[in-house]
From TrEMBL:
The keyword Transmembrane helix applies. Monomer. Interacts with integrin. It comes from Chloebia gouldiae (Gouldian finch). Keywords: Calcium, Cell adhesion, Disulfide bond, Extracellular matrix, Glycoprotein, Immunity, Innate immunity, Membrane, Metal-binding, Secreted, Signal, Transmembrane, Transmembrane helix. This is Spondin-2. Its main location: secreted.
């Protein structure tokens, strides 16, 4: 009888412990942020640096109407229950509007609704636009142990539906927040417009495609503005740095930054991307010119489609001559 009572009480204790553990676990968000045990809140300064220069990206570089520039930055701090955008998945209507037109209202509404329904959002942050391809903008953001992930988007202007951004970067490492993190950014296609070049007219992708990374060889089409077949990887088109603010810095927020690029900090850190000359196909041969009963000459021509840059392959001869027999001789 004593053995039975001992077994009963042992099982009861184990059951209570299991219920307690499972109950605590069910109150945590599911995903990679579940184990964050850092201090209550942390504030970061986020600095976005545009590196979209004509030196690094010479092909079809937009110089006017409009020139190369960046939209405002729109971001959110959240748990793993929310996703602003994700590679190889379909963009939401809000992300589509932002990537195509720079309109933020639909995306902000999606974020607010996610925060209200599943309490997966801690806060929204934004930073001003940059009026050139190179420059900086910044703002502050706040993360929480239950919402340690950071996501944001910045539209590439002009472009069909191209953007850069971060998807669910975790600033928490176990029991502490990271002091600083920097990430190189590369272009993405939202999958909602089929344009190949920066200035392509609106041409909706039907059916909608998934979000894909744009590389030097994909899309594999010579007309694509990022097509550099001699490169193994594109140079970063932008960079983001997040620095944790110390308690002494809280409440002393610096104003938004919107500075032109400093050559020794931004442009000089990017190697020149060689751009080879591109020419058209040969025209048809022209008329044979010469004296009857003697060998004459005829010419065909081609023209330059794209001028070389940054020590790329120079243009070949644009005309070619060959011998021929004059026609219509009596």
């Amino acid at each position: 009888m004593e053995n039975l009572m001992l077994v009963y009480w042992s099982c009861k204790v184990i059951w209570i412990v299991l219920v307690t553990i499972l109950g605590y676990g069910s109150s945590l968000p599911v995903g990679q942020d579940a184990l964050c045990t850092a201090e209550e809140l942390a504030k970061y300064r986020i600095i976005f640096t545009g590196k979209w220069s004509q030196t690094a990206f010479p092909k079809q570089y937009p110089l006017y109407r409009p020139p190369a520039q960046w939209s405002s930055l729109l971001g959110v701090t959240h748990s793993s229950d929310y996703s602003m955008w994700k590679k190889n998945e379909y963009a939401s209507n809000g992300v589509r509007d932002f990537a195509e037109k720079g309109e933020a209202w639909a995306l902000m509404k999606e974020i607010e609704e996610a925060g209200e329904k599943i309490q997966s959002v801690h806060g929204i942050f934004s930073a001003p636009a940059i009026s050139s391809g190179t420059g900086q903008t910044s703002t502050e953001l706040e993360v929480h142990p239950r919402h340690p992930l950071v996501s944001f988007v910045v539209r590439i202007v002009p472009s069909p539906d191209w953007f850069v951004g971060i998807d669910s970067l975790n600033l928490c490492e176990g029991d502490h927040w990271m002091d600083e993190v920097s990430v190189d950014l590369f272009p993405y296609d939202a999958g909602t417009d089929s344009g190949f070049t920066f200035s392509s007219p609106n041409f909706a992708t039907i059916p909608q495609d998934t979000v894909t990374e744009i590389t030097c060889s994909s899309p594999s089409h010579p007309a694509n503005s990022f097509y550099y077949p001699k490169l193994k990887i594109l140079p970063p088109i932008a960079q983001v740095t997040m620095m944790k603010l110390k308690k002494s810095q809280l409440g002393l927020s610096a104003p938004f930054i919107n500075l032109p690029a400093k050559s020794n900090e931004i442009i000089d850190t990017v190697s020149e991307t060689p751009l080879d000359c591109e020419v058209s196909q040969w025209s048809s041969w022209g008329l044979c010119r010469g004296v009857c009963r003697e060998t004459g000459t005829k010419i065909r021509t081609r023209f330059v489609l794209l001028q070389p840059a940054n020590n790329g392959m120079p243009c070949p001869n644009l005309d070619e001559e060959t011998g021929c027999e004059p026609e219509n001789c009596i």
